[in-house]
Amino acid sequence: MPQMLAVLSGTHVVLVVVVVLLLFGAQKIPELARSLGSGMSQFKKGLREGEQALLQEPLKETTPQPPE
Q: Which of 5-9, 11-15, 44-48 has the highest average model confidence (pLDDT)?
């Protein structure tokens, strides 16, 4: 994967930016970036809450029950 990123040059990056501008428009890009950032922060918040819940929950030892 890192080798693929080494192939990208400045021209490629400019071309990608131009295509994104044409597809979404200059005014839509900040809105998309804000929603992406908001989604990422909500995801991280959920991960932290889940981690805290796992750390606070006492470990339950389960022993297999013999078949009846």
A: 44-48
